[in-house]
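Can't paste images in this forum, so I'm doing it all in text. The chain is below; anyone willing to post the predicted C-alpha cells underneath?
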Amino acid sequence: MSQYLVTGGAGYVGGVVAAHLLEAGHEVVVLDDLSTGFRESVPAGARFVRGRIQDAGEVLDGSFDGVLHFAASSQVGESVVDPEKYWRNNVAGSLELLSAMRKAGVRRLVFSSTAAVYGEPESTPIVETAPTRPTNPYGATKLAVDHMITSEAAAHGLAAVSLRYFNVAGAYGRQGERHDPESHLIPLVIQAALGIRPHISVYGDDYPTPDGTCVRDYIHVADLAEAHLLALDAARPGEHLVCNLGNGAGFSVREVIDAVRRVTGREITAVTAGRRAGDPAVLVASADRARELLGWRPSRADLDGIVADAWQFALSLTGDAPAAG
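Text version of the structure:
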C-alpha cells in the first residue's frame, strides 16, 4: 500500500482520481481550499486537509510515495481578464509544491496538464511533439509548470509524468462536472435538456467538418483516472514524460447535441451563432504515446455512454435519480 497526496482532490478530475486510488488499495490525503471544489466530492476513506497548494509543506513528509497535482485555476476566459491570478495560483503555487516535495523527499509526481498548451494546432491528431503555442494565460501557465517539472527532474531526480487532457466528460459515482460558470459543451447541453437554459448556442456551422460544426475529442473521466494510476507506475527518476490523453477520434457539436437528445429523450433547442475567435475546426489527440508507454487503453469511448453518465449525475443533483455508478 502506498500513500499519495492529491492536490485539488475536491474537484471533478481530482476527486475521481482519488476514488480510483482508494479502490486500488492506497491511502489518500486530499489537499483542497474548496475555492472551486466541493467537500462532498472528496471520496470516503480519504483524509481531507483544507488548504492551498502553498500549504503542501505542512502536509508532506517521508511517508508519502507521490503527489498527483490537480489544484489550479482553470477558466480560460477568466485567465484572460485576470492573468495575475493564474500565474500566482498555477505557477507560483506549483513551484512551492515542488519545493515542498523536494524538502520532504517525495520524488514522484503526476501533473494535470492540458491540451490548451498547443493553442491552434497546425495539424491533427495532435502529437506531443507538436509546437506549444498557448493562446491564453491558462494554457501558458500550464506550459510553464511543464517546463518547471522538466527542470526539477533533470536537476533533482524527480520522477514525473504530465498528462495533457483534451475534453474530459462523463461522471463517476457521486463525482461529475460542477463548474460555475459552466463552459464545457456536454454539461451545457444537459442544462438545456433540464430547462436550466433556454437553448444551446452553436458557435459556427460553416467549419470544414462533416456537419460544419467544430469537432472535439472527448474522454471519459474514469478512463482519465485510470491513466493517472498507470502514470504513477511509469514515472522514472530524472525523467519527465509528457502524454496526451484522448480517444483519438472526435465528435462534432451537433453530434454531441444529438447524443444528449437520444439519452435524455428531451427536446433541445440549438441556436446557431457566429464563430468564436480562436476556435479551431478540429482538436483531436494522438494518444499513441500513452498507449505505448503507460499501457493505457480507454474503454469508455462511446459518446452516448459518456453522456448517459453525465446525465445521471446531473439528475442526482436535482434529486430525480441516483448518480451514475
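The mean pLDDT is 94. The longest strand covers residues 108-114.
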